[in-house]
Amino acid sequence: MPRRIESHFIPGPAGRIEALLEEPEETDPTEAALVCHPHPLHGGTMHNKVVYRMARGLRKSGSVVLRFNFRGVNLSEGEHDNGRGEVDDAWAALQFLRERYPTLPYAMAGFSFGSRVALRLGCAAPAPRPGRIIPVGFPTGSLYTPGHYDYFKECELPKHFILSTNDQFAPRAVFEKAYETFAEPKSLKLIEAQDHFFAGALDELEAAIAALPR
């Protein structure tokens, strides 16, 4: 039986949201996962190569995956809102996904800017809450300012961080200083890669995503 692949337009707070729904290749889905893309003003879309590999790794682990474009990207309506409205977009997409698969546990995932959105929404989500959050390439910036990530100190959901060893937007020492303050449960997987976009290590990233615990 061929896997389900569907294109959708989801009603969102700023207009329609372009989305792509994909079920696992060989099994019935056992989890529903929402994947958020990198920064819209720097070319980020749901077709970004890291986002694509994340989605494929999740499908290999049995997840049905919904990717979507934030407001103002490709066929999604609206304008970029510096992360505020993008959290609302993700919430609308998540509601669509959960209505389609109401009996499945769900996960939040995102790359770069999308990892910030996934964490913000996942940590604040009402019950039933996500079973896990998967931030990939979480951008801590060149400086770690104490207090900037305080909301993670009380986010007791499972958080599985994946980081390139040569991430220019999350230098390892800066990231690890921030990571120390994040609430348990949490994990950190470092992947030997050339840059923030996991150049030279996309296969390793996909495998790491597929192997994450639930």
State the distance separating the first and last CA atoms. Answer: 26 Å
Beta percentage is 15-25%
> How much helix, percentage-wise, in residues?
25-40%
Report on the biggest sheet: 8 strands, mixed
Within CATH, the superfamily carries the name: Alpha/Beta hydrolase fold, catalytic domain
| Structural class category | alpha/beta
Oligomer: single chain
Main-sheet strand order equals 1-2-4-3-5-6-7-8
Radius of gyration: 16 Å
Q: Helices and strands, in N-to-C order?
A: EEEHEHEHEEHEH
User: For the residues shown, what is the average pLDDT?
Assistant: 94
- CATH-defined topology: Rossmann fold
Could you name the ranges where pLDDT drops below 50 across 5 or more consecutive residues?
Answer: none
Number of domains: 1
Number of strands: 8
- CATH C-level class: Alpha Beta
How many helices? 5
CATH architecture: 3-Layer(aba) Sandwich
How would the global form be characterised? globular
